[in-house]
Every structure is written in C-alpha cells, then in structure tokens.
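Aim 2 progress update. The chain analyzed this quarter is reproduced below.
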Amino acid sequence: MPTIAKSNFNLVCSLLGGFALLFAFVSYLVKDKLFISEPLPSLIFGAIFRGAGLFRPEQYGSDPEVITREFTRVVLGAQLILAGIELPAKYLKMEWKSLFMLLVPVMSTMWIVSALIIWLCIPNLRYLDALVIASCVTPTDPVLSNSLVKGKFSEEYISEPLRNIISAESGANDGFGYPFLFLALFIQRDKGAVVLKDWVIETVIYQILLSCAYGVVVGYVTLLVLRFCKERDLVDKDSFLFVSFPLAIFIVGTAGLFGTDDLLACFIAGNLFTCDWFRVETEHSHVASVIDMMLNVGVFVWIGAVSPWHEFSTREVPVWRYIVMGIAILLFRRLPVMMLTYKAIPRVADAKEAFFIGFFGPIGVGAVFYLQVSLDTLLTYTQDEHVLYLQKILPPVIYFLVISSVVVHGLAVPIGVYGLHFPKKIMLSLSRFSTLSLSRNLTKAASASTPRPTRTIPATIEDAVYGFPSSSSRSAHRPNTENANEDSSVGSVELIEREIAWRLSHPKHKSIVD
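Predicted structure tokens:
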C-alpha cells in the first residue's frame, strides 16, 4: 500500500518551493510597486514555518549552528564577489579616501556606540562582553545592502555614485569585522602586550592583509585564464556568465583551509573583474540577479526558522529591553557619526545623502555569521561565569537586532515613499491587480463569443498578392474560382498555380507574373 512520507525534508521542500513560487508570481507587485525586497517576506515565512512545527533544524545534523555558519559563509562569499564585480573599474583605488573614512573612524565609532547601548540595555553584562556582541553588528550587511541598491526604487531615488559607495562599503566592512571581533576576544583571553601582539599578527596581518593578497592573486589568475579561454572559444556563454559563483565557492573553501578572511578575499577578487571587456560581455546577463534572489530567499527563510524566538522575553531580560536596544541601535549606531563626518567623505555629497547612508546601515547575514564565529572561539576559552553568560546572551541579542533591521529597513523604503498611505497603496495595488485580471478574463470571453470573419480564398493571383478583386473584364477561358469557397478541398496554393498557368498560356496577361 502506498503511504504518505511526511518526512521533514519533504515538508521543507514542499513549503519552501511553494513559497518561492508564490513570491515569484507576485514579485513585480511586491518589489517594483510596493518596494519590498525578498528578505522581509522570507524571514516572516521562515518564522511561521518554524512556529507551526513544520521545520526542525535539529534533524539536519547534531549541531544546527554549524549549518548556519557554513550556510551564511557561502551566501556572503557569493554576495561579496557579486558586489565587487558590479562596481566600476578600479573603484577601490579611486575611492580609497571615502572607504578609509567609512572603514576606520566611522566603523570604530559604530562599534563603541553599539557596545555602549548593548551594555546599558542588557543587565549583568560587562562592557568588554558588550564589545564582543557589538563587533557582530558593526558591519553593514552586503545581502541587505544589495537588496537596497538594486531595483526600481534605487534607480529612481538613489544616485549611482551613492549606490556604488554603499555596495563598496558593505562589501569591504563585512571582511573588516574580524579586527573588531578578535580585539575584544583577545582582551577576554590575554593581558598586556600579548593582546596587541596576537591581534596584529593573527588578525591584521594573517586575516586582513593575507586575505587581500590572496583575493588579488586568485582573482587576477582567474581573469587571465577566463580571457585566454574566451578568446580561443574554449568556454561557452553559460559557463562564462556563471563563473563568479564557483569562484566564490572556491575562495571560501581555500581561504577557510588556511584560516584567513574568506569574505574579504571574495570581495577583492570580485573587484578585479570590473575590467571593461568582462563588463561588456556580462552587462545584459541576469545570472547574478537570479543567484542573488535565490540565496536571499533561502538564507532569510533559514534565519527566520532558527531564530530563538522564545528567548526574546525571559525573566532575566524582558522583551522591553530588547525593543529599547533595537530602537537605540538603529537610531544611534551609525546615523550620528555619519552626520558628523560626511564632509570628510568625498563620495557623500550633502547632508541628505549622509542621512540616507547613515540610516540604511542594515544588520543581517553577516551578523549571524560573526555570531557563530564568536561562539566557536568562546568554546576554547576558560568557561568562567562571564564566558558562559556571554555564550548564553549572544544568540538572542544578535538575532533580535537582525530581525529588527530586516523589518525596519524593509518597511522604511515603502513607508518613506508612500508615507501613511502605504496600507492604502497595498489595497490599491491588490485591487488593481484583481481588476486587471477580471478585465482580461472578460475580454477573452467577449472575443471567444464573437464569430470570426470568414477568410475568403483568393480567386485570382491579383487577389492573393494585392488583396483586391480582379477586374470583371477578364477572359471567360480563365480557371473558374467563383465557387472556390464552397469547395474546401481546393486550397489557395492550387488556385494560384492554376492562375499562373492560365496567364502563361495567354500572352496578353503574361506581364503581370514576369
């Protein structure tokens, strides 16, 4: 007897595939009309998915945190290499001053301010522990940033230079999160000059400088080999357009083997592909957009499913503390320092652009990845009460800030465009969609009920070629085609052949077919 296999994998495939199909069916309405990108609907679906008991991450391995860490690594690697490719040629060299300001003074201030807010909102937490948590949420997320700088909204409301600097910053500072994270972790572990020595050697030199060098080497060699193969017709069009994704997987794997910063290496390697000939070959390709959407939907469904929703309100840390912390982080983590320093950033033109780039500093997949790196590192430390409490409080704080950023930044764009009329815009778009569907159905029904005019078989060669009746003064000896419509067995081709044969036998009319 056939049985229904209600396995977790079958349920996940069914529901995830169904959600992806549903979102694809209404993607134009959601993304181009309402300006809502895929992270927010995917996160909500993942939360509902898990809350209904239809998804159990623990069934996919003994430690779901390992799956989360590796999944986010792959997604970030692919997104960062795409972000590097889409920048203008030699962009990092041309905009080094703006990037330096964003990566050093601005990012350092974001780290210190975020730690202060977390320390004030979470009880029984040392400021040093808050620095570890803050280092996870300091980098702006490349996945959410890419969703912001693409699509109809960005083309209409965001200038191209501002879009480029947002992409470049989110790509670079996601790799630059390592120095902040490991500085706080080394202070937890060591004392005195040992902290500075380990931080400089293990993080600055090995993690940052080596990853930049590795990204340059791998990206340049890949570009040379790709051009060599392209010029000799060794690579087909599909593989040529797809090469960025396997390159990202290769860098993530090889950089992970010797323990350097794979995220920064992916971004540097991608930026080497901004040369003119590669851009010309790929400017009309949508492969990157398809990969981008596929990864976004998958990773945010996963984040929504694995988030510790039950830990957002406990006796030790009530939910109001999380809410206050989330609001304060989104308002004061980045916006004030951007308003104070934008005049020193050449690519930020005025206070309006500074406000925009200061507010839209999203927290997303990168924060979840750094959370897993922090937990893995803390397992090697002496398990005293401070370390144990930090391991306990890290996941709910990070996931709550990620969810807050996805919701606020996901709804800020449509609310900013439509204001208080955003709910009305949703209802209006849905009503227009239903009205358009109804009118199309009525049009189809009306056209189906209306009889089509009978097509007349051409009686002569003039009728067939020129579309008008022949003269009535023609010879009576020509072929009889008056009853051609009644005789369905005689086709127009046969009639034309008869007409040509008749005209050839009558020189008076021969010139019309010559």
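Confidence is low (pLDDT under 50) at residues 454-479, 481-490, 508-514. Residues 64-293+322-421 form a domain with the Na+/H+ antiporter like fold fold (CATH 1.20.1530.20). These observations will guide the mutagenesis experiments scheduled for the next reporting period.
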